[in-house]
Amino acid sequence: EPEVTQTPSHQVTQMGQEVILRCVPISNHLYFYWYRQILGQKVEFLVSFYNNEISEKSEIFDDQFSVERPDGSNFTLKIRSTKLEDSAMYFCASTVEGANSPLHFGNGTRLTVT
Amino acid sequence: QKEVEQDPGPLSVPEGAIVSLNCTYSNSAFQYFMWYRQYSRKGPELLMYTYSSGNKEDGRFTAQVDKSSKYISLFIRDSQPSDSATYLCAMRLNNAGNMLTFGGGTRLMVKP
Q1: What confidence score (pLDDT) does residue A23 get?
Q2: Each residue of B65-106: pLDDT tens digit?
Q3: CA B16 → CA A38, B12, B20, B80, B108, distances in Å?
Q4: How many whole angstroms separate alpha carbon B31 and alpha carbon A51?
């Protein structure tokens, strides 16, 4: 069964550094998402992306965050200047038809900001 | 009042038991309801996807939605040790794309 693939599985970075989290969505999917889960807290929506544009974003997704689909297969989340509170699991997800189809999540990247 | 609430557990049951997992929510505008299973160090895996009120069955899993009570349930029949995981409910508004609001998850342990 096709999977959403995320790399790296664990990323450690120093506060203030830029970090890029990478995702390869399922190949025929057109809608892409990032969610995050701070340890011990709920999974939270960050951003959705379709047709090379952000469709929706949450209050968490401020100017420090950006997303990009640099080529036909990758979908990236960039955090410009990481803070301690950015430490979390970041999940990428994709769907075929947006709201008409359910999300398929990757296994996440654990980001640790020291 | 929190938007979506789940008892965190852990819920411990013997193998073969019927498991009942529940969520309550405060926003009556939620229209789509989902249950995800999350194993340790893995992403959420979709189990059930329902629209509005009613029941949906898939194998050993049954999802129920009671919009009048703002209450959703997931039943697992003949529970297996492999069902041991965290179960997340999630829901969304009608025109909210896939902006899901999750519950905090219930940790289930099925003992052989």
Answers
A1: 97
A2: 999 999 999 999 999 999 999 999 999 998 778 899 999 999
A3: 33, 12, 13, 6, 13
A4: 26
- Do residues B15 and B111 make contact, with C-beta atoms less than 8 angstroms apart? yes
d(CA A36, CA B47): 20
Smallest Cβ distance to B99: which of A45, A105, A108?
A45
Question: Does the structure show a pLDDT above 70 at B1?
Answer: no
* CB contacts, 8 Å: A106 with chain B: 43
Nearest CA in chain B to A90: B43
Q: Answer with the residue of higher pLDDT: B109 or A40.
A: B109
Spell out a b/e string for B68-77, using b for 16 or more CB atoms within 10 Å of the CB, else e. Answer: eebebbbbbe
CA distance B89 to A79: 28
| Contact status of A106 with chain B (Cβ, < 8 Å) | yes
